[in-house]
Design brief:
Helices cover about 65% and strands about 0% of the residues. It has about 100 residues and is mainly α. The protein has a domain at about 30-95. The radius of gyration is 31 Å and the shape is elongated.
């Protein structure tokens, strides 16, 4: 009777590194309701902080154009920027 050689790792045998875990075990992090509220409040404040400068720039430009009597120019410039954004977004979406 011939003895069968042990199967290697690629033939369905045992791993050379020992038994491999089926799933990695990660520690669970428990966050209290108060912690979740603080995270949401901080995220909203950061979002407002990052959006404040673009809004201030937009509003300042609007007031400046209005003060010079060129409110229509501001509207035309703003709408041209918006339409250009959407046009190029569609073009690159079709290309990509």
């Amino acid at each position: 009777m011939s003895r069968r050689p042990p199967r290697g790792f690629f033939e369905g045998g045992e791993s050379p590194f020992g038994r491999l875990p089926t799933e990695p075990s990660f520690p669970t992090i428990r966050v209290s309701r108060r912690g979740v509220i603080w995270i949401v409040v901080i995220a909203v404040l950061l979002l407002l902080l990052f959006l404040l400068k673009p809004f201030a720039t937009f509003y300042t430009d609007y007031l400046w154009f209005q003060a010079l009597g060129f409110g229509g120019v501001f509207g035309t410039r703003f709408s041209a920027q918006i339409w250009s954004f959407f046009l190029f977004a569609i073009v690159f979406w079709v290309i990509g």
